[in-house]
């Protein structure tokens, strides 16, 4: 055995000695070959020319490492796996439409409703009740609804902390399991690691069925690390729902709070669309089929609503096209509240066109952000928008994680989606579009308070900004395709 091993070592050493003078040429050949292969793949599969250019530049300027990063982060394998499991309709519902679909009251918003209906293949449902809540109120309402559950509780979230917010909710879920309620919890594979130890171990000890979306600690088994399930909703007894931007974290409920957010309680037929979106994600994750029929009343309020379930699988660009359509439909005022505002050039140009036709555009972002790079990039994009006539307001502390858009005091969109490349291209998101003057008025008053308590930033403020800060912001904005 020793002689055999020694022989192999001699042969191997000989090969190394023979090719060692040619290592530079070999390395160059491998690097160039990988760059060419990646470039061909990028040109064939990337619809966004800026993303294609960014990835191409990376693989040529950073040999080998750029190709590895593209393999891990740039290749979208979700579409293929989704079709294997669901026939390609992972995010869409079953495509049903009603014969007499609800129509929004303002005539100019009816085109928007038809367009979003074509994008989602879902009807605009009438008779819903949508109740906005702050994060502490929403958490308490969710716990109360879980404690009253008799049939099922389905919860999906990006972050579920093992902390002062997550523990009471996990205890309520455990009590529901004890009563015989069917409980299913879906946590994003990356979001589940925000709290250590992860709450999944606590939930499993309590008998709660919990799964992690696209999770693996082994890089070679985790080719989806850049594609996250950012959705946040809960459906109880197939008739009550909650959705919005709130994660389950202690920062929302501590005193004083470190984060604020907006969540909504949902009643009415649109809950069926939340339910089907959860069922698709659950089936995608673990293969279990859930009952998706809505069990609530046909009419509990006056809000016309529709779910917009979008992701990087079969629903690419659904949210982005919805935003473009809503901006184009505006005749009077557009209001945007988001923690992360790094839109692409098309969205910026569409907002500019809206302002040119006389539409007032107001953008509210946090004065202090939890992601500095994104905040710097936002400031660069907002500088140009403010120069074109938009109003920029910086909301006061604590950090506001809310995501709300309002158009013409009648249409609103609330949910999990932000105005950045990650939400628009990489994440699985869920938003509600709602047509209701009363609800829009309520949320407009909520935005008014954000504006009153914040600071108005003008073109003069940007001009007075230190030159090095403007350069920093511009450099950060160059990373827009990756943010």
From TrEMBL:
GO cellular component: plasma membrane
Gene Ontology MF terms: cardiolipin synthase activity
Domain called PLD phosphodiesterase: residue spans: 225-252, 396-423
Subcellular location: Cell membrane
SUPFAM superfamilies in the cross-refs: Phospholipase D/nuclease
Keyword Transmembrane helix appears in the UniProt entry: yes
Membrane topology: Multi-pass membrane protein
Chain segments annotated as transmembrane: 22-40, 52-73
Top-level taxon: Bacteria
Matching InterPro entries: CLS_N, PLD-like_dom, PLipase_D/transphosphatidylase
Record Pfam families: PLDc_2 (PF13091), PLDc_N (PF13396)
Keyword set, alphabetical order: Cell membrane, Membrane, Transmembrane, Transmembrane helix
GO BP terms, alphabetized: cardiolipin biosynthetic process
Predominant cellular place of this UniProt entry's protein: membrane
Alphabetized PANTHER family for the sequence: CARDIOLIPIN SYNTHASE, PHOSPHOLIPASE D
Record-given protein name: Cardiolipin synthase
């Amino acid at each position: 055995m020793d002689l055999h091993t020694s022989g192999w070592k001699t042969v191997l050493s000989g090969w190394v000695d023979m090719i060692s003078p040619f290592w530079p040429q070999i390395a160059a050949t491998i690097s160039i070959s990988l760059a060419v292969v990646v470039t061909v793949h990028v040109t064939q599969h990337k619809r966004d020319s800026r993303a294609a250019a960014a990835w191409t530049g990376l693989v040529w300027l950073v040999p080998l490492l750029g190709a590895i990063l593209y393999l891990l982060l740039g290749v979208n394998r979700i579409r293929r796996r989704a079709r294997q499991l669901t026939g390609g309709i992972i995010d869409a519902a079953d495509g049903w439409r009603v014969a007499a679909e609800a129509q929004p009251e303002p005539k100019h918003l009816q085109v928007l409703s038809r367009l979003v209906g074509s994008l989602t293949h879902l009807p605009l449902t009438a008779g819903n009740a949508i109740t906005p809540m702050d994060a502490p109120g929403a958490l308490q309402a969710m716990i109360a609804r879980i404690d009253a559950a008799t049939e099922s509780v389905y919860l999906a979230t990006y972050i579920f902390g093992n902390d002062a917010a997550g523990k009471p909710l996990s205890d309520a879920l455990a009590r529901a399991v004890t009563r015989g309620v069917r409980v299913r919890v879906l946590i994003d594979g990356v979001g589940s690691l925000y709290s250590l130890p992860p709450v999944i171990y606590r939930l499993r000890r309590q008998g709660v069925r919990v799964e992690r979306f696209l999770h693996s600690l082994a890089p070679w088994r985790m080719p989806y690390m850049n594609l996250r399930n950012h959705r946040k909703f809960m459906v109880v007894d197939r008739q009550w729902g909650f959705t919005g931007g709130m994660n389950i974290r202690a920062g929302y409920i501590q005193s004083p709070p470190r984060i604020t957010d907006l969540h909504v309680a949902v009643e009415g037929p649109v809950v069926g669309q939340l339910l089907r979106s959860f069922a698709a994600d659950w089936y995608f994750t673990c293969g279990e089929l859930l009952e998706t029929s809505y069990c609530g009343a046909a009419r509990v309020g006056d809000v016309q609503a529709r779910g917009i379930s979008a992701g990087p699988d079969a629903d690419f660009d659904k949210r982005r096209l919805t935003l473009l359509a809503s901006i184009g439909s505006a005749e009077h005022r557009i209001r945007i509240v988001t923690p992360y505002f790094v839109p692409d050039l098309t969205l910026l140009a569409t907002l500019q066109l809206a302002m040119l036709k006389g539409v007032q555009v107001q953008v509210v972002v946090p004065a202090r952000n939890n992601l500095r790079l994104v905040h710097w990039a936002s400031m660069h994009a907002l500088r140009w928008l403010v120069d074109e006539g938009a109003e920029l307001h910086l909301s006061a502390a604590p950090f506001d994680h809310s995501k709300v858009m309002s158009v013409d005091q009648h249409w609103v969109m609330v949910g999990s989606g932000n105005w950045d490349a990650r939400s628009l291209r990489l994440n699985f998101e869920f938003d509600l579009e709602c047509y209701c003057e009363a609800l829009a008025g309520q949320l407009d008053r909520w935005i008014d308070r954000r504006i009153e308590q914040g600071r108005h930033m003008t073109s003069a403020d940007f001009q007075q900004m230190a030159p090095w800060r403007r350069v920093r912001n511009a450099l950060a904005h160059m990373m827009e395709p990756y943010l």
